[in-house]
Specification:
Layout (H helix, E strand, L loop, with lengths): L7 E8 L3 H12 L8 E4 L6 H10 L18 H8 L6 E2 L7 E2 L1 H14 L6 E2 L3 E7 L2 E6 L2 E10 L22 E3 L15 E5 L3 H10 L5 E5 L20 H7 L6 H10 L7 H12 L3 E4 L3 E6 L4 E5 L4 E4 L1 E4 L10 H9 L18 E3 L5 E6 L5 H4 L6 H19 L12
Parallel strand pairs: 1-2, 1-8, 2-5, 8-18, 9-16, 10-11, 10-16, 11-12
Antiparallel strand pairs: 3-4, 6-7, 7-8, 13-14, 14-15, 17-18
Helix pairs in contact: 1-11, 5-8
The structure holds flavin-adenine dinucleotide.
């Protein structure tokens, strides 16, 4: 759709066209609650591009989650898609739970759904800079103009907030240090005979190390703790309405207690068995070296970087890539702006105060706004899988559930398209 037109009316504007934004759009259109003419997805990166890029940057070739987790609504849509194209071999067996799709199968299916619902035609190629909640609608300010909508769904992921170790945040930190999630990081640009350091001991570091390991290139992983193997990112108890979820909701919304419970429930920094086996093989074959100490200092050596670890060992590296995860989900640009400029309620560490049944962001007076949140920023409601595909499906059900009754009577005299 290109640039946003000034004063364009949309019933629903989705901010972010990643896994969560695309799933919300598919769910809304599929439920025939709204036609494509009344829906916008504002995203400057392209649909699913952010996730696709991250998978490519760390060399992720298969998903960690089972094949029923995808951006469509019917749990078996991906299986049927694969069967119809003779691609069943792209389901990777796993020791625990259902088979997992390859990343290319997952993305081909997602792209097929985007084409089927013609989502690219409703994408506004712009970044949202402000969202103003009003009694009768929402004003969405974008770098390409203003969009008026009745409802706004925020699905912006982590934004660009990722974590660097402290030594890498010094003003004079070496140029050779980068982050695997930095949009400019390109694994194909890593020198064929370079000595590469990777900081981290979780799934991303493991995948990146085994992807970059090749004859002629030295790869050293700096992992301060032993590898911790887990199939998923939390217990499956958190994938559905459960006692665990009830315990979470017993605490006040956007509270420290909820945040800590979610953090405790997440197996952050873990590595699934299939990646662990690859790392083990690479270590045994000598394609990857493991340094068990933490980097204390990194110094620019006029191109390469010299690192000194706490145990006194030192390395000279051509490139040093941090696979040290994401920062707070509430500290992306848009959330920080809304915290400062809007009257929407925030709580511990800036978490949005959301209604547990609808994911609507509450106003200062406690009434639900016209803005709802999906993705990691909704983790205090949806638990440790909020960011995941299964979290998008759960958020989709809640949001479409409340919109169903709210949109009734708000349609501007158009019948929804049958897709
Ligand atoms: C390498 C990797 C592997 C993963 N594997 C799995 C897996 O196997 N299974 C699973 O369930 N989960 C997995 N996850 C977790 C999760 O599913 C992904 O992180 C997913 O991409 C989250 O989707 P999202 O839509 O919230 O965020 P994103 O995919 O990051 O999308 C957010 C979108 O919002 C846009 N945006 C941000 N700010 C603005 C703004 N101000 N205006 C307009 N647009 C904006 C961005 O451009 C982006 O396109 C994985 C995550 C990573 C990083």
């Amino acid at each position: 759709m290109g640039q946003a037109e000034s004063d364009t009316d949309a019933l629903v504007t989705i901010v972010g066209g990643g896994v969560h934004g695309v799933h919300l759009a598919v769910r809304l259109l599929r439920a025939e609650l709204i036609g494509p003419d009344a829906l916008r997805i504002v995203d400057p990166s392209g649909l699913l591009e952010s996730f696709r890029r991250k998978c490519r940057q760390c060399g992720m070739v298969e998903l960690r989650s089972p094949f029923v987790h995808h951006v469509g609504t019917d749990p078996f849509s991906l299986r049927d898609f694969a069967r119809a194209r003779g691609r069943e071999a792209e389901f990777v067996p796993t020791r625990v739970g259902a088979e997992r799709p390859t990343a290319s199968l997952f993305f081909d299916h997602a792209e097929w759904l985007c084409d089927r619902y013609d989502l690219e035609s409703i994408r506004v190629d712009a970044r949202v800079t402000d969202v103003v909640d009003r009694r009768d609608g929402v004003r969405v300010e974008t770098t390409g103009g203003r969009v008026h909508a009745r409802w706004c769904l925020l699905a912006v992921g982590h934004g660009r907030s990722f974590t660097y170790p402290e030594w890498a945040t010094e003003p004079d930190s070496p140029r050779a240090v980068t982050h695997v999630w930095d949009p400019t990081f390109d694994p194909d640009a890593v020198g064929e005979t370079s000595t590469v350091g990777i900081v981290g001991g979780g799934i991303t570091a493991g995948q990146l190390a085994t992807t970059l390991a090749q004859p002629g290139r030295d790869v050293v992983v700096f992992a301060r703790s032993p590898f911790h193997v887990e199939t998923l990112e939390a217990s499956t108890d958190w994938m559905h309405v459960s006692k665990a979820m009830e315990r979470l909701h017993a605490h006040p919304p956007a509270s420290r207690a909820r945040e800590e419970l979610v953090a405790e429930a997440r197996y952050d920094g873990t590595i699934p068995p299939y990646v662990f086996r690859r790392v083990q093989r690479a270590l045994e074959d000598g394609h990857v070296d493991l340094e068990r100490s933490e980097i204390a200092v990194a110094t620019d050596a006029g191109g390469p970087v010299v690192v000194t670890c706490r145990d006194g060992s030192a390395y000279c590296l051509d490139e040093l890539i941090c696979a040290t995860g994401f920062d707070s989900p509430y500290d992306g640009e848009l959330f920080r702006h809304l915290r400062r400029e809007s009257t929407l309620q925030t709580g511990y560490r800036g978490a949005p105060v959301l209604d547990d049944d609808t994911l609507r962001w509450l106003r200062a007076d406690g009434s639900p706004s016209r803005i709802a949140v999906s993705g990691i920023a909704a983790q205090q409601v949806l638990g440790p899988f909020a960011r995941n595909v299964v979290g998008a499906r759960r958020a989709g059900k809640l949001i479409v559930g409340f919109l169903e009754s709210e949109l009734e009577g708000e349609r501007p005299g158009r019948s929804p398209a049958k897709l």
